[in-house]
Amino acid sequence: MKILYEFIFRRLSTKTKNRLGSSHFFKPLRDVLLRNNGRFKEIFVEIEKYYLEYPIKFRYYASIKSAIKARDKGVENTILRNSIILSKQLHKSHDDCIVIDVGSNFGFMSMVWGLSICKKGTVHSFEANKNVYNSFLKSLDHNNLKNIILRYNAIGKTNKTVKMYHMDTTSNFNKTNNTDKYDMVQMLTLDSYDNQNQLGRCDIIKIDVDGIEYDILQGSLEVMERYQPLYIVETNDDPRIIDFFITNNYHILDMALEPYILNTQLPPNIFCLPK
């Protein structure tokens, strides 16, 4: 059945997929092809890739679209390679890093780190979409990745319970016309998570949550001061993120690992190192 779903998905044009995704008329067909009991239809693929010198191999559970893309092209390859390069520059040991992955989605990046620079370390992963979290958990169980700690939490600038609206494989704090489905999720700050768990060290923090990156940064000031980690942050064209790192005495690099030039177009992601 997995092969059949993949075959059908590949034969659909991008235009057809978009129409299936948005049209109420095509909802019955969309539900048959892409959904299962009101959620995305899950498949697994076998991932076999190299990230620099690290051979990476794992089974990956995700939505049809995400799984096929991951197997064929990988996920955020530039970010992963850059994180490995910078990790080597910052640390003598290359396999015991402590990474915090905020907005881990189906866990591709977390698992690459868990099998490379964190092989003897730990990845702390956070995902606030329950269905996506469950798929990631299935991958961890199958691959026996004990060095990845997965938490079903939102991360922000305060500790509180929040309403998370789910749009298939993503989540948002704001209700949209596309969904009225939500879960109540416990939000934590990274500072409170560290205080509760006494990490003792943090080498990399990656933040990709579609809009509240700045709030998350504000909730990580103690972690920043304590551990001076490398930050990898999706900017979403938010200039406050640049100001935050300048204020806190960090270098800012673009996707090519070149110094970011102030007042120019923001890169989609930035790499921020303590001075």
- Please identify, by name, the CATH architecture: 3-Layer(aba) Sandwich
CATH topology: Rossmann fold
Number of strands: 15
Q: What radius of gyration results from the CA coordinates?
A: 19 Å
CATH superfamily grouping: Vaccinia Virus protein VP39
What coarse outline follows from CA principal-axis ratios? globular
**Helical percent range?**
25-40%
From the helix content, strand content and strand pairing, which structural class follows?
alpha/beta
| CATH uppermost class | Alpha Beta
How big a fraction of the residues is strand? 25-35%
Description:
InterPro entries: FkbM_mtfrase, SAM-dependent_MTase, SAM-dependent_MTases_sf. Residues 101-239 form the Methyltransferase FkbM domain. This protein has 275 residues and is of the alpha/beta class. It has a single domain (76-274), classed as Vaccinia Virus protein VP39 (Rossmann fold, 3-Layer(aba) Sandwich), CATH 3.40.50.150. 37% of the residues lie in helices and 28% in strands. It has eleven helices and 15 strands. It has helices spanning 2-11, 14-22, 27-34, 64-73, 77-90, 108-114, 130-143, 190-197, 213-218, 221-227, 239-247; strands at 35-36, 39-40, 42-51, 54-63, 98-102, 122-126, 148-151, 154-155, 160-167, 170-172, 182-188, 204-207, 230-234, 250-253, 269-274. The strands form four sheets. Strands 7-6-5-12-13-15-14 form a seven-stranded mixed sheet, with helices on both faces. Strands 8-11-9-10 form a four-stranded mixed sheet. Strands 1-2 form a two-stranded antiparallel ribbon. Strand 6, helix 7 and strand 7 form a beta-alpha-beta unit. The longest helix has 14 residues, at 77-90. The termini are far apart. The model has no long low-confidence stretch (mean pLDDT 88).
